[in-house]
């Protein structure tokens, strides 16, 4: 079996992303834990982030814990893809955090779902990550 690419996620007190992450059947790490957000990924990893429109002038949507983890050049280099949770009610800010990070890092958005995600979303996301594991194991990826 190939290495299971770990998923680093942020989830607020409502915990919707956490419950999704925990159903992925692979190593998942919680960026709200200080030691996790101050660590360095030991290989390729995937980010899972909700978007949070702050209403400030810049309308930042990237959670601070995610921003903190991405300050590390090693983590930025080893990140191979981005997944997002959002809510279409936020209009043009739908999935803004995940899409913004993907655009700025040149990494693909691998999967997006709304709010807590459906059982179908969980299955589809597992499949996407399994394909990624295989591609990385075969060396078909720059970060492998
Ligand atoms: C205050 C607030 C702001 C939000 N802003 C956005 C947004 O800009 N874009 C978006 O797609 N979703 C937005 N959402 C939806 C959340 O990203 C979504 O519900 C996510 O699943 C929350 O995950 P969590 O419970 O793990 O924190 C917002 C939700 C809240 C409560």
Automatic annotation (TrEMBL):
A GO molecular function term, named singly, is: FMN binding
Read off the InterPro entries from this record: Flavoprotein-like_sf, RNR_NrdI
Tell me the domain of life: Bacteria
Q: Which Pfam family, any one of them, does this sequence belong to?
A: Flavodoxin_NdrI
PANTHER family from the UniProt entry: PROTEIN NRDI
Q: What is this protein called?
A: Class Ib ribonucleoside-diphosphate reductase assembly flavoprotein NrdI
State the taxonomy lineage: Bacteria, Bacillati, Actinomycetota, Actinomycetes, Micrococcales
